[in-house]
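Researcher: Let's walk through a ligand-bound prediction step by step. First, I give you the protein sequence. Second, the SMILES string for zinc ion. Third, you return the three-dimensional complex as structure tokens. Ready?
Model: Ready.
Researcher: Here are steps one and two:
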Amino acid sequence: MTESTPSTPAVEPQPELPLALAKIVGLGSWFRHPDRPGWERREARIELACPYCGELHRHGWTLGGAHTRTETRLAHCQLPAGEPRPQYRVALDLAARHVVDPGQPILRRCRR
Ligand SMILES: [Zn+2]
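Model: Step three, the predicted complex:
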């Protein structure tokens, strides 16, 4: 599992991809805030049932902004080496009880 990459999607959401609903289950790494020099923001960890393999997969998710948005992720399915990873669209399950408020960013000043 990759813990050190920001949750910025690599590609724009594609409507033909399956949609997976996710729940915020924890907090992840701090990253430099792209729009606020001198500040860092903390990422959330989301968990979802994979539409391809049925297993639970975890990804990073940027808190704040439109928590109704949809992003695209590469699935973390256990695949033979060299097999291309499928993609899915991810949205927060608005009916789920998240461990933090999806609409509120968690910020701090940089330590140096
Ligand atoms: Zn999977």
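Researcher: And what stands out?
Model: Residues 39 and 110 are 5 Å apart (CA to CA). Confidence is low (pLDDT under 50) at residues 1-5.
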